[in-house]
Design a protein that fits this description.
- This protein is of the alpha/beta class.
- Helices cover about 25% and strands about 25% of the residues.
- The structure holds ligand 9MR.
- Ligand 9MR binds next to loops.
Length: about 500
């Protein structure tokens, strides 16, 4: 099911599609223990692509020698999971304690790693004295906290999550002592204070559930656009990426990253993990590996995506089981510090075993359509679509979308959409209804169909994807004038259904 989205984002030309194996929607994984001592580390693989690969860590874990060895060798960047948060660094007003964070920065220096500072201003892990201040004193306390901490870590921290998690799920600002005292201005005030304290650090806003297109990432997009317009020092957006097998992959992550990059900002994946309902099984583990791979692919495809940090690398030290009882197994390595299939998927996506990853032209595709619904005046629209790879190489599906245009008529402006059946499995198909900013003849909305990943071999077809949509009040459509509708009941090439690879139109004619 999906609800209506406004079509407002600018589409720019796509970057080269990643060409992956020739299997149709098969997530061929190469998990298993890493044996060769001389094989490239995750960070070396990422660095060859101009990115870093990092992990969160925490002070108690560093006394686990086996854990620390892999942390120090496999990753080129670390983030303290807790030790730079306000409750640790200024538990009592004016009493600063950077002991724990200093252990992290010393570990990083020993292992030639960069550090992302996390985090200066957050509603959580905030000592109660801050919330108990009269609102008129909060700005001074916040500025002092930022100034002391960012000054202390000057030179040791390359990037700061200056403000963490400013938004609610619907894109409204989250209430916090900072918001209560200063309204939305607290974000700019915090960024300016951090910049004054450490002009060399990259300054980020960081949040979860902003990885895909949606209300919350729209809110972040609007905020950072405004901050940039006002000349507020801001370098990047952190997408935490706490994903879950059972909730699906974020909608159009790559396109979402690209719209932030197009503003001139860096993008970082800051807290990646992919949890699941326990126990793990092959299907969940395969989906998890696919999600990790897709995040890597999205970052590789967007030049301004500077790197990926996993929210600790092993299930042994994951935050998930204590927060979501019954869930876990979210990390790249298991509780015995052995790499899982997701680890192999990340390595493969980072170009392990090839010459560092190949770029190529956007895939060559065409859309085919058949009408599975004789009635033009009922309350559902039911296009059957299939996507065919007309090129000579495997086409990456993670970046491909199709559009079926229609007119909404009267009734509710919200929609549900459905994939009823497909041989590739509806769980691999994403769909939503988008309202056009500028309606055309026969088209004021479109059904957008995408894929969670996989690739299509040369000449191969996805096979039928049976789609259906309705208005949430189940009022009737008049399909007779719909731009993309045809009357043929067998599959045929459909020039009025568009296919995009990345942001580039590769098939069809837009209305
Ligand atoms: O990993 C952190 C965990 O050890 C703490 O108990 C938890 C408390 O909120 O915070 C965890 O890290 C969070 C991060 O700071 C912000 N994004 C969500 C992370 C997971 O909760």
């Amino acid at each position: 099911m999906s609800s209506v989205m406004r079509c407002g984002h600018g589409r720019t030309r796509g970057l080269p599609a990643l060409l992956v194996g020739a299997l149709t929607l098969a997530f061929a994984l190469t998990g298993g223990p890493a044996t060769a001592a001389q094989q490239d580390t995750l960070h070396e693989l990422a660095a060859a692509q101009g990115k870093y690969f990092g992990s969160a860590t925490d002070n108690p874990e560093l006394s686990d020698a086996a854990y620390a060895a892999t942390l120090g060798s496999e990753f080129g960047q670390i983030t303290p999971g807790n030790s730079m948060k306000w409750d640790t660094t200024e538990p009592v007003q004016g009493q600063f304690d950077f002991t724990k964070g200093d252990v992290i920065t010393a570990f990083a220096a020993q292992h030639d790693q960069t550090v992302r500072g996390h985090t200066l201003v957050w509603h959580s892990q905030l000592p109660s004295w801050v919330g108990n201040l009269p609102p008129a004193q909060v700005e001074a306390a916040m500025t002092r906290h930022i100034t002391e901490e960012a000054t202390h870590y000057r030179g040791a921290v390359t990037a700061w999550d200056v403000v963490n998690e400013p938004f609610n799920e619907d894109g409204t600002f989250r209430t916090s002592p900072f918001y209560t005292a200063m309204g939305t201005d607290y974000v700019a005030t915090a960024l300016r204070a951090a910049h004054a304290a450490d002009p060399d650090a990259k300054l980020y806003l960081n949040d979860y559930n902003i990885e895909g297109l949606g209300a919350k990432s729209d809110a972040m997009y609007a905020l950072v656009s405004e901050l940039l317009d006002e000349g507020v020092p801001l370098d990047g957006v952190g997408m935490q990426a706490h994903l879950a097998v059972q909730y699906g992959f974020p909608y159009q992550m790559q396109a979402n990253m690209r719209r932030f990059a197009d503003l001139g900002l860096d993008v970082a994946v800051t807290e990646l993990d992919v949890r699941m309902q326990l126990p793990s099984d092959t299907a969940k583990s395969d989906t998890q590996a696919a999600y990790y791979r897709q995040v890597v692919e999205a970052c590789l495809a967007v030049e301004r995506c500077v790197g990926i940090t996993v929210w600790d690398y092993t299930d042994k030290y994951s935050w998930v089981p204590s927060t979501f009882p019954g869930q876990g197994a979210a990390n790249l390595y298991d509780e015995n510090l052995l790499p899982k299939p997701a680890h192999g998927a990340v390595r493969t996506a980072l170009g392990a075993g090839d010459d560092g990853g190949q770029g190529g032209e956007p895939g060559a595709f065409k859309a085919q359509y058949r009408n599975t619904d004789a009635s033009v005046g009922d309350n559902q629209i039911k296009p059957g679509l299939q996507l065919v790879n007309t090129g000579g190489t495997a086409g990456d599906l993670s970046d491909v979308t199709l559009r079926y245009w229609f007119t909404a008529g009267n009734g509710a402006a919200t929609y549900s959409s459905w994939c009823d059946w497909s041989p590739i499995g509806c769980s691999h198909v994403t769909h939503r209804v988008v309202a056009m900013d500028t309606p055309e003849a026969g088209a004021d909305h479109y059904l957008e169909v995408g894929f969670t990943g996989g690739s299509l071999a040369p000449g191969a077809s996805t096979g039928e994807i049976q789609l259906r949509l309705n208005k949430t009040d189940w009022s009737a459509f008049d399909e007779s004038d719909d731009y993309s509708r045809g009357s043929g009941t067998s599959y045929a090439d459909a020039p009025k259904i568009a296919v995009y690879a990345g942001d580039e139109l590769v098939w069809g004619i837009e209305p």
